[in-house]
Amino acid sequence: MQVSTNDYYEDNGREGQIRCIFLSEFHATAGCKISCQVPADYVSKEVFDAINVYIIPKPHLQRCILTVNALDIKVVGYPVGIENQQKYARNAFLFNLCFVCDSWARSVQYEPVVKKLSEYLIMMEEESCFLSKEGDHKLKLQKIFETVIKDLNEKKVTTIVEGDTTIYLKIVIHKPDPPVVKDHMVPLLLLDFKNTPLDKWDLTTQQVIS
Predict the structure, then answer these.
(1) Model confidence over 125-177: pLDDT tens digits?
(2) How far apart are CA 202 and CA 191, in angstroms?
(3) What does the record list as GO biological process (predicted)?
C-alpha cells in the first residue's frame, strides 16, 4: 500500500483519521455480525469473518479496550456483555462498538472516546433496549455514527442529543514525550548579560549571576 508524505504514521506521534465506525453484536441465531456500519461495507464480510473472534471475545476480555491490527486496518473496540435473562434470548446481549483506522495510524487517542461512547450505548440499551430492539433504532444509530465521524475528524469534539441522552465526545491529543536531556546539555548565553538590569531576569537567573 502506498502512502503519501502527507499521511500520518504511528511512530512520529501524529494521528490518522477515523475511517469507519461499526457496531457488532452476537445475534441469537446469526451469530457474530455487523449490525450498523458507517460508511457501509467499509469492513467487508471477509475481513470481519477473519477478525470477529477478537470483536466479540470471551467474557474475561469484556469491558477492556482491544486493538486489532490486521488486513490493512486497525480496529479499536470495547466489547460489552449485558446480562438479563428476561430480555435476551441467550440471557445476555453482547456487542462491540469499534472505530476503524488505517493500519499505520496512531490510535491511542481514540481509546477513551470508544470507551465513553460505548458507556453511553450501554446506558441507552439498559434504559430502552436502544441497540437490541427491532425498529428504527439502527437508523438513529447510523446518524449518530455519521455525526461522530464527521465532527471528530474535523473538530475533535462532538455533542449529540438522542432522546433524553446527550452525548459529549472529545479527542485529547497525546503529544510525544520531550527529548531526553543529557548531562552535557546546558543553556548557553548568546548575548552579553552584563548590560541587562538585574531586575529584568527571572528569580533563578538573578541568584545565579548575582
Answers:
(1) 999 999 998 878 889 999 999 999 999 999 999 999 998 899 999 999 877 77
(2) 16
(3) cellular response to amino acid starvation; negative regulation of TORC1 signaling; positive regulation of autophagy
Distance, in Å, from the CA atom of 100 to the CA atom of 51, rounded to the nearest integer, reads 13
| Closest by Cα among 110, 145, 147 to 131 | 145
Task: Return the residue matching grid coordinates 488505517.
Answer: 102
Task: Give the separation between CA 67 and CA 77, rounded to whole angstroms.
Answer: 6
Among 68, 63, 25, 29, residue whose Cα is nearest residue 50: 68
Assigned C-alpha cell, 193: 548579560
In the block, cell 470508544 appears at: 114
Instruction: Please check whether the domain covering 17-170 is classified as CATH 2.60.40.
Output: no
Q: Which residues contact 86 (CB under 8 A, 6 or more apart)?
A: none
CA 198 – CA 209 distance, rounded (Å): 9
Q: Where are the alpha helices (DSSP H) in the chain?
A: 45-55, 111-128, 137-155, 203-209
- Report d(CA 120, CA 95) in Å as an integer: 13
pLDDT in tens, 92-111: 999 999 999 999 999 999 99
Record the pTM.
0.77
What is the C-alpha end-to-end distance of the chain, expressed in Å? 61
Beta-ladder partners of 23: 36, 97
